[in-house]
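We store chain and fold; example below:
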Amino acid sequence: MIDGMTLNKALPALILPTGLAILLCCYGIWKRKWGAVAAAAGLLAVAGCPAVSDMLLLTLEGPYQRKQQPSGAFDAVYVLGGYLDDYCGVDLEPQWDEAGDRLELGIRMVRDGRANVLVLSEGGSRRPPEGERGKVIAGSRGIPEAQIIVTREVENTADEAQRIAGLARERGWTRIALATSAFHMRRALQLMEEAGVPVTPAPTDFKAMGGQRRLEHFLPSGEGLKRSERALREWMGIGFYRLKRLVD
C-alpha cells in the first residue's frame, strides 16, 4: 500500500518541469507529435536556467532578504527538520544535508543567550532519528541537555506545527523563534499560524544567488532545474494548504 505521505510527495512530481517533460515526450513519440517533444526540451531549458530558478526562489525568499536575525530573548528556538543526511549515525561526524544551516542557527541562538531552549523535531521513520542526532551534535557544542527538547515523531511541517503548539501551551511559551530555510519560511509560518503558535521568523539557508547576472546564469543546468523545482514544489505546498483551509 502507498501511504498518504508518499502520495503527497510523489504526485507533485508529475506536474513539475521534469515530470511534465517526460509526459510530453512520451505523448509526442507515441503520437508522432514532434512539437510536443520540442516543447518538453524547451520547458527543461527554461526551468534549468539559473536566472529563472533565482527569480522563482526570490518570490519565496524576498521578504527575508537583507533582514537581521531576530533579537531579544526567546523562550525557545524551534529548528525544522531536514538538516542531516539519512545515513549519518549518532556516533559519526555530522554529514549535513543542504539545510544544515537550520541546526547551526538554532545552536548559535541558544549559545548566544538569544533563546533559552533548543527544540528539535524527532523526524520521520528514519533511524536513528534526526532529532536525537541533532541533540548529540548540540550537546557536543556545549548546549546542556536540560536546554534541548526533542519532539515526538513527525512526518511533515504540519505535524511539526502541532508539536510546537503543544509545547507552547504546556510550557507557557510566548516568544518562539522558527529556524528554517528561507524558501520554506512562508509555508512554515502559514502552518504555525493555523496551529496557533506565536513564532518569529529566523530564516537561514538562502538559495537565491542574486547579484549581477553573467552568461552562465542563462545557460540551462541540472542544478538550475533542481532549484526551480524546489521553488515550484514549495508554491504547490502553499497552494495545497490554502485550498485545504478553504475546504475545511
Q: What stands out?
A: The longest strand covers residues 176-181. The chain has two domains: 4-63+220-247, 75-204. The chain has nine helices and five strands.
